Amino acid sequence: MATDETTERGKTTERERAVERLEKQRAFRGHLLVYALVNGVLVAIWAAVGVHGFFWPLFPILGWGIAVVLNAWDAYRSDAFSEEQIQREIEHLRRRR
Question: Per residue in 75-84, pLDDT tens?
């Protein structure tokens, strides 16, 4: 007998989806912490060597920052569609016929 938490066999339960989402969010927070620490050290090295030179830490900050933003999007975006989005897509498909 199926409960509210389970779906058809072979499909993910709501609990499994929630656990997966929480794991992604935890991994993102770890990624963000490492990003901040490593780039903080790079900026400190740049400052110790001479702040009047070219700000070379910009390259890893921006490059890695793109990956951090994509990781955040994956961890925190909603994977469910609203009824309004579904109806709008149905109307769009009907107009294309």
Answer: 999 878 888 8
